[in-house]
């Protein structure tokens, strides 16, 4: 059993299935040397990658030189586009593309200036370059597969796995086309130099240059060039392949040369093989050694409607119309086809403005006798000739039935995606059924379906994720609520927790009291504050009283804790003093009762005092409590009159309360001081409104307030600010005071 | 700009459906000629009658179906069906037999299923089976080969026989051999004789087997075989179905003959008598109703061969191709479904 390499060395060939033998008609164009085309006035260079993985590198109006890149990009798949000649970029806009649909794609239009001035080409010696440098050169030259598919070459030459066999494709199996044939005859040395570079990059075990046996001149030229080249004769060979369409197809060629099949959906690299076109090898050499970008390629112009059939070096981007004008077109544009590519796989061109692309190897201008009539499709008689001709071993007939019936899933189950669209089935069909067209439609429909399915799946996933999230949130909420309920239950039952809760409640009450105090103070110290504040303060006071009264009755320990209560108590004390003193005192108007609210408050206080005294007289048991309250009330009264916070300390000392009461008293003092300072500030504001002062001063004013310094310094700074008031600060302070009053009110309401 | 647009490929083989059909018909001509030589002008009259009825019926149905008449008529498929019905019917069968058969084939079996390419059953064979079951007497009344007949028929007599101006006694006189004994077809004779307890050797001594295979039938089969080989050469048909039929029939009958030569028809006689060759090359190869893949066609052909052998040997009818082909037609979609060729890049096991 021979190994594959041994069989290759022996020149063994395998059979590929199917295939057809259409008339070759190559003599029409392969008799003359590759010619030059006169410069066109305008070149159109499609920029398919711009907006995707590349950026424009030129602007409208800019002059570009031959070989200058029109795009820039950094991605792996980026393949630059170059100006084919010197000229001015006149527009960058969508233009008809060289595609069966004629769809417009973004293109750069260059008006040639006729000078054909080029950029400086960086020549290099291959030996001096590293592999990476060579690959970079290939990428920057924009080299793509010139066999027709135009796949970026630098990607192909960077395979993930080892390549054992490189196949250089010089088959050119399509009828009419002779561009590779002429290139091999005239530039065999350059092609071999390109192959040497490929050999250097991939170091394969064998290189096969495959040429169809209908090109004996090319085979001979290549053989001579191979003998002259540095490639080892043992590892590189030229193999003549029997003429049959489509032997030049990558998969078919691999089958013919190695007997292996590229697995469905895979690439030849998976078998350790790589196929490159001879034209690509030529371009690789040109780019690496001469530093020239891929701006020109050989294009066959042929068909009986061509007046000068042959091969021509054409700048990429040459409009087809220019080629027709320059080389002569004998046909009629309205009735004759223009085919880009060969007659088997090429597409008819809808617009002659479309340009020559990197993958354009032939412009076929057939007369009507040369190509098939557009016969009406007749019913399929299931003759099965298509299956005999199919090189992919498919059942074209079944694919046709299912594609026609739009049963795309069934068509896919007959391996529609393995169809290479070579056209053999349509070629042999006796019923003139355009089978390949059905497959193309089915393929794109399947693509669309898959796309839609993917999107639907995605939407479904999102929807399900949302449902799940909502459910999770709901569960979390429920768990939380349950936990909270349990905590509540635990609080109610546990004694320690009870104490804590009580303490919390006390602290809250104190806080409220502080705020209320300050609000009350603000109200008294700054009577010019707007009514709302006054009313709020008054209400707060009234409420404080109301609250204070029942606490008085209930527990002695809780009462002194609140400064507010002290105040209330003061009022009560005052009332009592009045009552206890003389009746005249009661008749005398209260010093603070300038506003109605205060009066009402006083009245309420009095009433409460009466109630308290009634209790005092009524019950003996609470005697011990009441005197202490009285005492406290007296002290509180002093506090009220002096409008100072310090005596409240005495109050607490007197009433001998817990430590946190003291703390709260201190806080209350501070709060009161702040409130007072604010009130002063507010007063200052009203005094001098227009006075403008640097903001530093106002900052100084503010900071002490924020840091809760003692009242003295506060008032000092307030006085200072009186001189240099900033109206803003005052307003803010007033607002804060107001807000605090409101907050206090709100808290009180909450408590109630 | 109004360009002429078309999808690739832009080249086509100039072999059209109508050409294929015409070539099949032309290749059948030698067989028809030999058949006429042995069985008289009746054969040609039946064929002509069938063609006229087929074209008329096809045109009428196309008008009713609101389809273009001319392109379809021109595809020659109806003519081919008519030819096959014409040669399958006894040459002296009454005219209405062929008319009913052809109408049935074209209208019911072909057009009602959607026309060319859509029918499940081979129209000619479906018609033949329908006639055989409905009119067994007329369908089995084969005239004796002219060379051994007591009263050879000329064209006038044939016309009289077909168009009904002939009495039953007169008709029966054309079924007599030169020895004055009524003769059936060779296969029919064998079947009857074997049923009567005679051995093969005894049966083969009858005058109808004067040349060893049944007078006339051997040459008719040879002519159709020649036509079939031409078709293979022209690539009008592929070899798979025909070879599979002949091979399986040969193998089966060889086994039977080796096991019991006295009660079994020999393999060569199986191949060269009755409808074997015309069926193997012209009827079973109808692509519309056959399997399409290469392996499928081999299975399809082998199935026909086995069925023919089984029905000829154990069935109630002397010949069996119509039944075998129809049964295989039924199986064709299943064969196609289960016998898919391995596509490129789909190695077995991955």
Can you describe what's shown?
The complex is a heterodimer of chains A (752) and B (350). Chain A folds into 3 domains: 122-291, NADH-ubiquinone oxidoreductase 51kDa subunit (Rossmann fold, 3-Layer(aba) Sandwich), CATH 3.40.50; 385-493; 498-751, no CATH class. Chain A has a 6-stranded mixed beta sheet with strand order 1-13-12-16-14-15, with helices on one face. Chain A has a 4-stranded antiparallel beta sheet with strand order 2-7-6-4, with no helix packed on it. Chain A has 752 residues and is of the alpha/beta class. Chain A contains 26 helices and 16 strands. Chain B is mainly α. Chain B has a domain at 17-183. In chain B, helix 2 runs antiparallel to helix 4 and helix 5 (95-110) packs across helix 6. Chain B is globular, with a radius of gyration of 21 Å. Chain B is 61% helix and 0% strand. Chain B has 17 helices and no strands. At the A-B interface, strand 15, helix 13 and helix 14 of A face helix 1 of B. Chain B: It is an enzyme of class 7 (translocase). Chain B: The complex is composed of six subunits: RnfA, RnfB, RnfC, RnfD, RnfE and RnfG.
What fraction of the residues of chain A are assigned to beta strands by DSSP?
A: 5-15%
**Overall morphology of chain A:** elongated
- Tell me, what's the shape of chain B? globular
Order of helices and strands of chain B: HHHHHHHHHHHHHHHHH
Contiguous low-pLDDT stretches of chain B (5 residues minimum) are none
Largest sheet of chain A: 6 strands, mixed
The helicity of chain A comes to 40-55%
- What is the helix fraction of residues of chain B, given as a range? 55-70%
Structural class of chain B: mainly alpha
Distance between the termini of chain A: 103 Å
Protein name (chain B): Ion-translocating oxidoreductase complex subunit D
Keywords (chain B): Cell inner membrane, Cell membrane, Electron transport, Flavoprotein, FMN, Membrane, Phosphoprotein, Translocase, Transmembrane, Transmembrane helix, Transport
Membrane topology (chain B): Multi-pass membrane protein
Family (chain B): Belongs to the NqrB/RnfD family.
């Amino acid at each position: 059993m021979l190994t594959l390499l041994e069989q290759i060395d022996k020149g063994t060939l395998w059979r590929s299935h199917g295939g057809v033998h259409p008339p070759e008609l190559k003599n029409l164009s392969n008799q003359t040397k590759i010619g030059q085309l006169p410069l066109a006035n305008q070149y159109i260079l499609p920029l398919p990658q711009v907006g995707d993985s590349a950026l424009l590198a030129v602007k409208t109006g800019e002059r570009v030189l031959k070989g200058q890149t029109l795009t820039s990009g950094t991605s792996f798949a980026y393949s630059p586009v170059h100006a084919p000649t010197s000229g001015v970029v006149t527009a960058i806009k969508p233009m008809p593309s060289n595609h069966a649909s004629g769809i417009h794609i973004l293109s750069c239009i260059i008006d040639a200036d006729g000078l054909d001035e080029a950029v400086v080409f960086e020549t290099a010696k291959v030996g001096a370059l590293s592999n990476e440098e060579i690959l970079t050169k290939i990428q920057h030259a924009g080299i793509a597969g010139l066999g027709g598919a135009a796949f970026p070459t630098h990607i192909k030459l960077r395979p993930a796995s080892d390549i054992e066999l490189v196949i250089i494709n010089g088959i050119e199996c399509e009828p009419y086309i002779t561009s590779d044939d002429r290139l091999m005859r005239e530039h065999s040395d350059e092609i071999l130099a390109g192959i040497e570079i490929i050999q250097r990059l991939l170091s394969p075990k064998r290189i096969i240059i495959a040429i169809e046996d209908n090109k004996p001149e090319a085979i001979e030229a290549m053989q001579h060039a191979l003998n002259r080249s540095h490639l080892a004769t043992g590892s590189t060979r030229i193999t003549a392949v029997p003429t049959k369409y489509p032997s030049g197809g990558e998969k078919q060629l691999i089958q013919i040369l190695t007997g292996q099949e590229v697995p469905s959906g895979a690439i030849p690299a998976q078998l350790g093989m790589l196929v490159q076109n001879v034209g690509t090898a030529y371009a690789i050499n040109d780019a690496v050694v001469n530093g020239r970008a891929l701006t020109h390629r050989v294009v066959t112009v042929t068909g009986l409607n061509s007046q000068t059939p042959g091969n021509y070096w054409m700048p990429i981007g040459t409009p087809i119309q220019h080629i027709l004008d320059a080389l002569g077109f004998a046909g009629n544009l309205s009735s004759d086809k223009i085919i880009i590519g060969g007659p088997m796989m090429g597409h008819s061109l809808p617009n002659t403005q479309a340009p020559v692309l990197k993958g354009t190897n032939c412009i076929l201008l057939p007369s009507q006798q040369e190509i098939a009539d557009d016969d009406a499709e007749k019913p399929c008689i299931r003759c099965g000739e298509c299956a005999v001709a199919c090189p992919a071993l498919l059942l074209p007939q079944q694919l046709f039935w299912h594609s026609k019936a739009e049963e795309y899933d069934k068509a896919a189950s007959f391996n529609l995606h393995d169809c290479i669209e070579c056209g053999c089935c349509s070629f042999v069909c006796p019923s003139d059924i355009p089978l390949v067209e059905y497959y193309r439609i089915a393929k794109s429909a399947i693509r669309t379906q898959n796309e839609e399915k993917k999107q639907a799946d995605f939407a479904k996933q999102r929807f399900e994720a949302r449902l799940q999230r909502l459910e999770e949130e709901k569960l979390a909420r429920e768990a939380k609520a349950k936990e909270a309920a349990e905590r509540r239950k635990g609080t109610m039952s546990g004694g320690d927790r009870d104490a804590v809760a009580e303490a919390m409640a006390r602290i809250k009450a104190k806080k409220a009291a502080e705020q209320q105090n300050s609000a009350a103070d603000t109200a008294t110290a700054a009577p010019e504050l707007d009514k709302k504040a006054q009313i709020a303060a008054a209400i707060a006071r009234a409420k404080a009283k109301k609250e204070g009264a029942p606490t008085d009755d209930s527990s002695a320990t809780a009462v002194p804790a609140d400064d507010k209560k002290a105040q209330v108590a003061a009022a009560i004390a005052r009332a009592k003093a009045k009552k206890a003193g003389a009746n005249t005192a009661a008749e005398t108007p209260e010093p603070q009762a300038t506003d109605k609210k205060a009066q009402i408050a006083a009245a309420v206080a009095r009433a409460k005092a009466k109630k308290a005294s009634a209790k005092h007289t009524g019950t003996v048991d609470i005697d011990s409590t009441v005197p202490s309250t009285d005492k406290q009330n007296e002290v509180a009264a002093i506090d009220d009159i002096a409008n100072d916070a310090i005596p409240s300390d005495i109050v607490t000392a007197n009433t001998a309360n817990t430590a946190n009461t003291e703390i709260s008293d201190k806080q209350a003092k501070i709060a009161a001081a702040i409130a007072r300072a604010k009130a002063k500030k507010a007063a200052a504001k009203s005094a001098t409104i227009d006075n403008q002062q640097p903001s530093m001063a106002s900052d100084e004013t503010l900071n002490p307030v924020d840091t809760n310094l003692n009242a003295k310094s506060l008032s000092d700074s307030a006085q200072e600010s009186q001189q240099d008031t900033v109206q803003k600060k005052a307003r803010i302070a007033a607002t804060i005071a107001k807000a605090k009053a409101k907050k206090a009110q709100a808290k009180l309401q909450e408590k109630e | 700009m109004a360009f002429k647009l078309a999808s690739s490929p832009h080249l086509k083989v100039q072999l059209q459906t109508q050409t294929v059909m015409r070539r099949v018909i032309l290749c059948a001509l030698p067989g028809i000629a030999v058949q006429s030589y042995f069985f008289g002008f009746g054969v040609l009259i039946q064929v002509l009658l069938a063609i006229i009825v087929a074209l008329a019926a096809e045109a009428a149905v196309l008008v009713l179906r609101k389809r273009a008449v001319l392109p379809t008529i021109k595809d020659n498929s109806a003519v081919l069906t008519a030819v096959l019905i014409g040669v399958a019917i006894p040459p002296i069968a009454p005219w209405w037999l062929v008319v009913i058969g052809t109408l049935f084939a074209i209208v019911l079996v072909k057009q009602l299923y959607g026309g060319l390419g859509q029918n499940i059953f081979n129209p000619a064979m479906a018609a033949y089976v329908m006639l055989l079951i409905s009119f067994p007497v007329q369908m089995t009344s084969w005239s004796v080969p002219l060379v051994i007949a007591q009263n050879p028929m000329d064209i006038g007599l044939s016309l009289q026989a077909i168009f009904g101006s002939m009495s039953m006694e007169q008709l029966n006189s054309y079924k007599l051999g030169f020895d004055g004994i009524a003769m059936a077809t060779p296969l029919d004779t064998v079947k009857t004789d074997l049923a009567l307890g005679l051995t093969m050797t005894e049966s083969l001594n009858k005058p109808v087997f004067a040349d060893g295979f049944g007078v006339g039938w051997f040459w008719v089969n040879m002519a159709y075989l020649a036509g079939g080989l031409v078709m293979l050469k022209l690539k009008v048909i592929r070899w798979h179905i025909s070879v599979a039929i002949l091979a399986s029939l040969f193998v089966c009958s060889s086994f039977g003959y080796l096991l019991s030569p006295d009660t079994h028809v020999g393999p060569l006689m199986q191949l060269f008598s009755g409808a074997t060759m015309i069926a193997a090359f012209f009827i079973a190869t109808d692509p519309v109703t056959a399997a399409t893949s290469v392996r499928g066609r081999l299975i399809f052909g082998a199935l026909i061969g086995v069925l023919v052998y089984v029905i000829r040997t154990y069935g109630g009818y002397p010949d069996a191709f119509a039944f075998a082909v129809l049964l295989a037609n039924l199986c064709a979609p299943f064969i196609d479904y289960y016998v898919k060729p391995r596509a490129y890049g789909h190695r077995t096991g991955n």
